[in-house]
Write a structure and sequence with these properties.
The protein is mostly helical. About 65% of the residues lie in helices and about 0% in strands.
């Protein structure tokens, strides 16, 4: 093979490779948002919109909790005994029920119903936000670890700058959970918030 033929074949291969890379980049750009939306879906939209509205929440934040808690599996169970899309424990279920549905014939098993889980979970997210000055990371820590744990941390200056919001999350599981909520919420906002 002559040098000239080799050079032409190399140029043709390079041109083909550049075309493939350009087409791949274009497809990835077009498909990327679709793939991201598959990873960060908005399932149960009617329920989420309804209960987020009822409790003055950003629906995208509710989706973030559902994705983090159960990845949209309605009958999810945790090692701690939490149930449903929003992974509510029996103790928390009883407390929420006494506040928003004392006369309704709901049981802990009712959390397998997406409507009930989203309703109760949205109420609890709202209660956590109200208790902790609308600070999402602190509210997420409370949703995950409980008010008593967060209240105790807020009494220690090494974890808070003002006594009302956590700036440091000292427990690995709590820290990971708060990071997951923050990441999910940022992605939901990037993908779905009005521009």
């Amino acid at each position: 093979m002559t040098r000239r033929k080799t050079a032409r074949r190399v140029r043709a291969a390079v041109t083909l490779l550049l075309c493939l890379l350009l087409c791949g980049a274009l497809l990835l750009a077009l498909w990327g948002k679709g793939l991201a939306r598959m990873l960060y879906p908005r399932r149960y939209a009617d329920c989420v919109e309804r209960w987020a509205g009822e409790y003055a929440l950003d629906p995208l934040l509710v989706y973030s909790f559902i994705r983090t808690e159960s990845n949209f599996v309605p009958d999810a169970r945790s090692d701690a005994g939490a149930r449903g899309l929003m992974q509510i424990t029996e103790e928390t279920f009883d407390w929420i029920k006494s506040n928003i549905a004392p006369d309704e014939p709901l049981t802990f098993d009712s959390l397998d119903d997406p409507e009930t889980s989203i309703r109760f979970g949205s109420y609890f997210v709202s209660a956590c936000l109200m208790r902790y000055g609308e600070d999402i990371p602190t509210a997420a820590a409370a949703y995950h670890s409980g008010w008593g744990t967060v209240d105790a941390l807020l009494e220690d200056a090494q974890y808070t700058a003002d006594g009302t919001a956590l700036t440091v999350f000292p427990y690995p599981n709590m820290r990971a959970y708060v990071q997951k909520i923050n990441t999910a919420y940022a992605m939901y906002c990037r993908l779905y918030a009005p521009q």
